[in-house]
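User: Sequence in, structure out. Go.
Assistant: Echoing your sequence, followed by the structure tokens.
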Amino acid sequence: MPDLQNPPMGRLDAFDVGAKKLTVQTEFFVRPAWRVETKVYLAGALKKVYTEDLSATPEGELQRTVDTFHQAKIEEIVAGLRRRQQ
């Protein structure tokens, strides 16, 4: 995979969950192949890592794909938290 002149920006969001902070961090990596990783931290401790291969994604679609992946993981986490509250 060629290096990108303008790689997509990552995303970072943090939420209060009770007395703890939930942090969702999404990063784009070019090596060994284009991929996106979302890491979920609770109170500073890494809890889960999600990875998706983006090597087949057109360069012009990368930022939107990273943003969509990040938002989907946040919505998945929020839905899980709501189910636990019920």
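User: And one key feature?
Assistant: The chain has one domain: 11-85.
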